[in-house]
C-alpha cells in the first residue's frame, strides 16, 4: 500500500491541520510503522497550539509520564494568550454568540461593524481581534468555533483581502469538522473569488491558488453526496486543467476515480480524460491512469483488467478513495464490458465471468443490467449463454456529416480534374501555334 501512497505529495498543498486525517488513516491501515507516523504527527503539532496533544504523543513515544520543559513552557504561553484574547474579544463575541440577536440585526440590515461599534461601544480593532481569536481557536483544534467566528468576520469585514484569507480558513475548518455542505459552498465561493481576483493576481500565484483549491476540495468532493460530479466539473475547467497539467499531475488519480464513478452522466469526457492520462504519463502514472489508457487508448482488455486488479490496492491506501473502491471496481468493470461489446458481435458470458472473477449467474444478471444501462442493441442467448449484439445504427447526424464530407472530397477531385484538363488543352494549343510559326516564316 505504501507504494501508492500520495500523502507526502498531497501534503505540500495542504494546511498542516488537513494532513492529520491523512496520517490517522495511514496509522489505522498500518501502512507505515506506528512510531514513524507518531513522529510525523509531532512535527506537525509543534507550530500549533495543540500542546496537550503534542505532549500526549511525546509521552507515548518516549514511554514516560514526563514532558520536556520547552513543551510545558509553551503550554503556559498558549494559556496566557488564550486568556488575553478572551478578554479583548469578549464584547463582540457576546453579541455574536446571541444567535437570535444576530438574526434580528441581519433582518434589520443593522449587522454592520459601524452599527455594532456605535451600539455596543466596541474598540477600533474589535474585528481584527476577532480574526486573531478565530485563528487562535483553529490552531488550538477548536475548528467549529473557528468556522463560526470566520463566518461572522466575513459578514462584517469590508476588507476584501482579509475576507479572502478568512474564506480559506473557514473551508479548512469546515473540512475538519466534516460539515460537507458548508465546505462545498466554500469551495464554490473560493473558486469564484480566485477568478474575480485574477486580473490583480500574478499568474504564478493564480496557479498556486488553483492548485491549493483542487487539493483542499478532495476531502469535500469525495465525501459530499454530489461531490464526484462537482470534482469532474472543477478539474475539467480549462484553467484548472492547465493547473493540473502544469503543477500537480498526481491529481489525475482522483479525476479518473471521479469520472469512472460518474461515467453514466459524464461518458463523453472519457476521451478527454484518456488524452490527459496519455499526455501526463511521463510525469505521473498509477494503476488508475494506466487502466484508462489500456482500455480507452490501446483497447488492451487484458492489460486493463490487470491494472484494475491493482486499482483496489491503490485506492485502499488512499483516504479519499478507500470508501469508493467497491463502487469504482464495479463501474470500471462495466466500462470494460461495454468497450468489449462495442467491438464484438458475440460475447461469451462464461468468459466474461472468468475474466472479471464473477460467478456465472451473477455475471449474467450483471450483464443484463449493463446492456440496459448502456443502451446496447443486444439480446441474451440463454441456450449458448452468449450476449448477441446487433450493429449499432449510424446516427442521422453522422450520416449527413459523412455524406457532406464525401461530397466535398468529390467536388475537390472534380475541380482538380477540370483544371488539369484545361491546362492540357492550353498546352496542346500552345504547341500547335509554336509548330505553325516556323512554317509560316519559311
From TrEMBL:
One Gene Ontology term from the biological process aspect of the record: formation of cytoplasmic translation initiation complex
One GO MF term: translation initiation factor activity
A Pfam family matched in the record: PCI
InterPro entries associated with the record: eIF3e, eIF3e_N, PCI_dom, WH_DNA-bd_sf
Any one GO CC term of the record: eukaryotic 43S preinitiation complex
Protein biosynthesis found in the keyword field: yes
Subcellular location: Cytoplasm
Keywords: Cytoplasm, Initiation factor, Protein biosynthesis
Domain PCI, first and last residues per copy: 220-394
Keyword Zinc assigned: no
PANTHER family on file: EUKARYOTIC TRANSLATION INITIATION FACTOR 3 SUBUNIT E (PTHR10317)
Subunit architecture: Component of the eukaryotic translation initiation factor 3 (eIF-3) complex.
Free-text function comment from the UniProt entry: Component of the eukaryotic translation initiation factor 3 (eIF-3) complex, which is involved in protein synthesis of a specialized repertoire of mRNAs and, together with other initiation factors, stimulates binding of mRNA and methionyl-tRNAi to the 40S ribosome. The eIF-3 complex specifically targets and initiates translation of a subset of mRNAs involved in cell proliferation.
Family in the record: Belongs to the eIF-3 subunit E family.
Protein name per Swiss-Prot or TrEMBL: Eukaryotic translation initiation factor 3 subunit E
Organism: Diacronema lutheri
